[in-house]
Amino acid sequence: MNGWELLLDGFAAALTPGHLLWALVGVTIGTAVGVLPGIGPALTVALLLPVTFRLDASSALILFAGIYYGGMYGGSTTSILLNTPGESASMVSALEGHRMARSGRAAAALATAALGSFVAGTIGTIGLTFLAPVVADFATGFGPPEYVALMAVAFVTVSALLGPDLLKGIASLVTGLAVGLVGIDSQTGAPRLVFGVDPLLDGIDVVIVVIALFALAEAFGHVLAGTGGSTVEPVRDRVVLSRADLRRSWPAWLRGTALGFPIGSLPAGGAEVPTFLSYSVEKKLTRHPEEFGHGAIEGVAGPEAANNAASAGVLVPLLTIGLPTSATAAVMLTAFQSYGLQPGPQLFEESGPLVWTLIASLYVGNVMLLVLNLPLVRLWARLLTIPAYGIYAGVLVFAALGTWAAGGTTADLLVLCGLGLLGLLMRQAGVPVAPAVVGLILGPIAEQQLRRALTLSEGDPAILISSPVTGVLWAVAALALAAALLAPVLRRTRRE
Q1: For residue 115, what is the enclosing H or E element?
Q2: Which pTM does this prediction carry?
Q3: Residue 36 has what DSSP assignment?
Q4: Given CA atoms 473, 478, 484, 490 in this order, what sign does their dihedral have?
Q5: Which residue spans traverse the membrane (predicted)?
Q6: How many Cα atoms occupy the beta-carbon half-sphere of 51 within 13 Å?
Q7: pLDDT at 89
Q8: Could you tell me which of 236, 262, 457, 485 has the fewest CB atoms within 10 Å of its CB?
Q9: Which of 157, 132, 64 is nearest to 317 (CA)?
């Protein structure tokens, strides 16, 4: 079957009443959590992982994908109305969007964000549809040496890009690798890092670690910082665009999409870089430079399109080579594994119907998000009036219930609290959490593939650089490491 037939089969499955319901639930929850500052899609997916154990894999993944896309949409609302990004990728939208809201143009800012998100999300999903099978076909020839090199690229890029500096990213990665080693060695049967505690012999459930590092650490951090509050800018008008605003917005949507999807598809991609690039491009190309810094609509349209196109792009390395390039993608990788699925080149061959149903549901979810965001923006704005203490009390309750559902023992709750405190210390020290999750998930896979490679070569490490693909991957890892080391020096030189 060719790609079109597979996609049509995916639509046939995605448009069933059950899957439509889960897509609607996902985008609704995603929009709500995107609106609420600090409650991002990564935390929400982590909290819902144990709750969805009774769902079939396709329904659960459609739900999580809806939360992911919805979170990207909803983050613009809180950026524009509160000047408080719900997601890091929504930071740039706050620069011009909040100034538009303060000048009485909140409706126009929200409209260009919603329409730009729809256009970029749809084009990005089309790119995912055609690019993902090509990448997966290429990666099917990977053997153990190629996978070891690919894991090295993942470790270096995630450590360098998902944190304030390389050292803190590596510290987080090593923490995750250490947690992933807890339990019994699958080859030798020897216990590792259990310290005589019998419940740890089975290892630490990935779901518990994700809930602790994201949910508990976030809630504990807000307890220490206090709750506080802000004044919400009201939305007085209908969320529509005038002809003049539309003429200025649509080129920015296309330029933002052209930047967001390719960069988001790279192993070292993500959504933050293309949003900043898009803002810079719009500032240089605008015919209204005097408005930048005072509420230029292009400064909202371009970055929001880049943000949502990058969100679709992030799914390319996740689905095709099992490489997460954002915190939410790392948690979604956990969701795949909880259903016995390993994202990578074999996923399209072994679970093709599920993958194409998931991709088709992204098109459906984009339409649902447009319908939800334009008429119901006043409802989403009212969510910003919920006190922070109520939100995080609910997070703690759901975290405890989810952990109990995942393991069902007192030891799991103790591990949850211990890892939650570790996550709080990481948060206070400015150490990013996402590399720890990536290390936890990919560390055992890298160890397994390294052992296989050395077994094939009878202990000769030269097998790790024995093919052109491994050479290219090790070169990419070295370049990413060099770039991360040189970036602070270049920034300091530029400031001087």
Answers
A1: helix 106-139
A2: 0.71
A3: S
A4: negative
A5: 20-49, 108-135, 147-163, 170-186, 206-226, 314-336, 356-377, 389-407, 463-490
A6: 13
A7: 63
A8: 236
A9: 132
